[in-house]
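Quick illustration, no need to memorize.
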Amino acid sequence: MGSQQTVAVFGAYGHTGRFVVAELRERGFVPLLLGRDAGRLQALAASHPGLEHRVASAGDPASLDRALRGAAAVVNCAGPFASTAAPVIEAALRAGIPYMDVAAEIEANVDTFAHFTDRARSAGVAVVPAMAFFGGLGDLLVTAAMGDWTAADEAHVAYGLSSWHPTAGTLASGTVSRDRRDGRRVRYTGGRLEYHLDEGDLPVLEWHFPAPLGTRTVLGGFTMADVVTVPSHLSIPEVRTYMTTDAARDLAGPDTPAPAAVDERGRSGQTFTVDVVVRSGDRQRGVVASGRDIYAVSAPLAVEAVRRLLAGQTRTSGVASAGEIFDAADFLRALSAHISVAPRPGVLQA
């Protein structure tokens, strides 16, 4: 339980932010609602009587300092993270409190590792980027699959989404990332992140997901934040991610609607399977995870991370991905009410 510790949520009124606020309350924490839009903050606070809200902007360091007073940790849910991550991390370092975000933006996560690793370690402050479905969950699963291996040749993370109805935040972050890439694609190969020009379509492959999902067509080279989080601490020179073609088509479609709530918790009906395989020589290991609503499930991921950070259940300090700073297998077990995780049957067939 949170023992009534105050946790600031920047971007609390956003789609994922609302799930994080609800999960914090359920786990016994006191959410502190932060954001730049006073009207939306007030409306959210009205639906959570007793919670304090404070207006703050990523472009105003003094407002962030005021907003974080009294907070034990801060969760940044306000994208695009290319604009918000660095200012909120700076404020967290000044306040001396742990920071995490739910960034799926590859470049924003690279920036966090590049610019804050030394400073956060010197300050003894934990900074955990991508503590969400993309980046965080994949990293935990790859780390758990590795077990006692200290290195592997390849890691494959295949995302089997029943559909992908993106939020406005996802679309905005995607636009920022595409602009930063200037028409290039990104991959992690040969032990480094590469940007390359490729005018052809992404390769379409068959991926044999474990039952009940079964064989699905996926896009190879559909690169997600796992290419930043996984190699940040694991010796794996090739990290590849895949996305089911139907979900990729949804994401790209101009008329795809935003996720719609179908239950009392506000979750959509979209489901997911994340299939992970790591290979070392002729040996393979794998795990598979399944659950519901990629945005809603980011909340228990982030809040479990908050709990462990504040309880001192960590393996390092400074900037670290989920799989490095936490005991991955134990962390995943703690999420059993939200995510089903099991050893992967069979071998890689893609």
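The chain has a mean pLDDT of 96.
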